[in-house]
Amino acid sequence: MTEATLNVIMFFLAALLWAAFGVLLFWRQDYLVELWNGFRGQNLLLQGIEFIVLLPWVCALWLWNTGWLLWVRVLLVLGLAWVNLYMFWPWKDR
Description:
Shape: globular
Largest sheet: none
Number of strands: 0
Number of helices: 5
């Protein structure tokens, strides 16, 4: 498998995870709270591994579950998603 193919696959995987986060954000916000509580209730070693592998999505979950104003949380989560997808964008000039 070439590097270009791997980059495209990783981009679409990241986009799929952000799309799933967005769907939950619009239709099942209570599930995001359950996901965060489930993450926090795990073994610290497992939390650390998940944090490293799923860093942007774990950060987005944390941001969403803070007590900050709604517009601040939405802006930060959208910004995080944009930066993450931009970093995975496989068609940019290097």
